[in-house]
Amino acid sequence: DAGVTQSPTHLIKTRGQQVTLRCSPKSGHDTVSWYQQALGQGPQFIFQYYEEEERQRGNFPDRFSGHQFPNYSSELNVNALLLGDSALYLCASSLLGGAVNNEQFFGPGTRLTVL
Amino acid sequence: GESVGLHLPTLSVQEGDNSIINCAYSNSASDYFIWYKQESGKGPQFIIDIRSNMDKRQGQRVTVLLNKTVKHLSLQIAATQPGDSAVYFCAENKEGTSYGKLTFGQGTILTVHP
């Protein structure tokens, strides 16, 4: 068990709605990265939060936003949901911004289904 | 664009055999590579990593080989067990401004038959 927790486990939404996913990093970690994993694909980097700021961002539209709290936990928000947003959303935690050779620990993910 | 990909999407082996999973990458600037194992209903689990200044690294029952000349990465699993059945992903990272931003390949499904 890597110690990263995510909630909820599963979620069903309809097109146009908004969703908030939550992540608590492994104890002692200060950095949270979010990934989207479509069925049969590898995870795609969404963004990373460190020191309560978005440090890096992948090729995702502004409908995807996030937040990091002082206790290092994080939220991922997706607005105006599309069918294509259906995926497993993974949270990964690490230390010091996830620098090279700094292992990232993944949570079990939140399965989002958009109808 | 830059990508990390896999040659074989599926691999079936008998218990006790050695398994080899391959990965090709296109970004010559990549300097850190990681193999992850993902079981059904779980997040990716770190297996082993290697830096670009190394050609080989060994762990417990696993070995990662890096060939920078042809931009190829492989994961060797010795004496494969049914518990090794999972999807295996290679991922790459770069130093500098991309700390923590992993680029994953498509994945290989490994099935181990008892």
Can you describe what's shown?
The complex is a heterodimer of chains A (115) and B (114). Chain A is mainly β. Chain A has strands at 5-7, 10-13, 19-24, 31-37, 44-50, 53-57, 64-68, 74-78, 87-94, 105-106, 110-114. In chain A, 0% of the residues lie in helices and 50% in strands. In chain A, strand 4 and strand 5 form a beta hairpin. Chain B has strands at 4-5, 10-14, 19-25, 32-38, 45-51, 56-58, 62-67, 72-77, 86-93, 103-104, 108-113. In chain B, strands 2, 4, 5, 9, 10 and 11 form a six-stranded mixed sheet that branches. The N and C termini of chain B lie far apart (40 Å). The model of chain B has no long low-confidence stretch (mean pLDDT 88).
The strand count of chain B comes to 11
Instruction: State the largest interface.
Output: A-B, 31 and 28 residues
Low-confidence stretches of chain A: none
Q: What structural class do helix, strand and pairing data of chain B support?
A: mainly beta
The backbone outline of chain B, from C-alpha atoms, is globular
What characterizes the major β-sheet of chain B?
A: 6 strands, mixed
Strand content of chain A: over 45%
Report a brief summary of the structure.
Chain A is mainly β and 115 residues long. Chain A is built from no helices and 11 strands. The radius of gyration of chain A is 13 Å and the shape is globular.
Question: What's the topology here?
Answer:
The complex is a heterodimer of chains A (115) and B (114).
Chain A: E1 5-7, E2 10-13, E3 19-24, E4 31-37, E5 44-50, E6 53-57, E7 64-68, E8 74-78, E9 87-94, E10 105-106, E11 110-114
Parallel strand pairs in A: 2-11
Antiparallel strand pairs in A: 1-3, 3-8, 4-5, 4-9, 5-6, 7-8, 9-10, 9-11
Chain B: E1 4-5, E2 10-14, E3 19-25, E4 32-38, E5 45-51, E6 56-58, E7 62-67, E8 72-77, E9 86-93, E10 103-104, E11 108-113
Parallel strand pairs in B: 2-11
Antiparallel strand pairs in B: 1-3, 3-8, 4-5, 4-9, 6-7, 7-8, 9-10, 9-11
